[in-house]
Amino acid sequence: MIEGTCHCGAVSFTFPKRPDWLTSCNCSVCRRYNPLWAYAKVSEISLRAAEGATIAYIHGDKTLAMHSCQTCGCTTHWIGLDSDKSAKMAVNFRMCSASEIANIRVRNFDGAETWEYLDQE
Ligand SMILES: [Zn+2]
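# zinc ion complex -> structure
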């Protein structure tokens, strides 16, 4: 399991395992926040945040909310707006220790146009 926490500690998560890769996305939101996403099912990620601890940013087709810590501003995760526990969500591995993420492959995802990874799997 891998732990992540925002800078002030108000939002934290536990990811079930070392991910095979982290995703760097170039969509209009991600290219500004610069997160490294790791994906898993909602049911597999333990997220700890008090009610109102995050700000949810919803844009575009309104299928998901990008969450940031209300206090320190770190982008922590995104989650779908339907509350389906089998759906995927993502947490930002920049909330994890540098040594933890140092050896995980980073893949570039073209969220701006083609919605495909720009490398070969
Ligand atoms: Zn925080």
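# post-check
The helical segments are 30-33, 98-101.
The longest helix spans residues 30-33.
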